[in-house]
């Protein structure tokens, strides 16, 4: 797919169904109402359509693509606003990265969001995003009262990494991005991919311990 097609507004793209074009147009309207005071419509649509294309190659259910694209574009625009100094909420932002963004990084983000509440922001991403969050990881987190079933594997982008105050990597090796001025930390954890629930529980518990320690170091109050 050429760049000019990928970045084109929904009504100009010929690679989408009518329903998909309408859904993306609606998504662009939502995002413009949220970010229009910071970015032009052209920038918002470019982020939305490039986000759509990020998922289109491996999505299992095409009907959900516009929704996923809107959610990811929203995260990317928030990150860009922080990088460009257009957003100043002062909340620490942590990015959790692993290979497939389907297990370790999703559990870490789940714990961080649950424990920090509105006092900090957590994002996650993968070097080779999978098609769904590991069901054993979802079940293990549900056991401790945290629902990550609504999450989805996604890549990282430059603005997301640049907006993070701390980047926690978990096994993505040389594929993990490095930008000057970020706090980087590698967590050596067993990969839950292909493991059953019994095997995932100790990985989950170690992640919780590490997240609690990270929150303490960042001086973020724990709400749970």
Automatic annotation (TrEMBL):
Keywords: Arsenical resistance, Plasmid
InterPro entries: Phosphatase-like_N (IPR048716), Ptyr_pPase (IPR023485), Ptyr_pPase_sf (IPR036196)
Residues of the Phosphotyrosine protein phosphatase I domain: 92-217
SUPFAM superfamilies named in the record: Phosphotyrosine protein phosphatases I
Highest rank taxon of the organism: Bacteria
The keyword Phosphoprotein belongs to this UniProt entry's keyword annotation: no
Protein name (record): Arsenate reductase ArsC
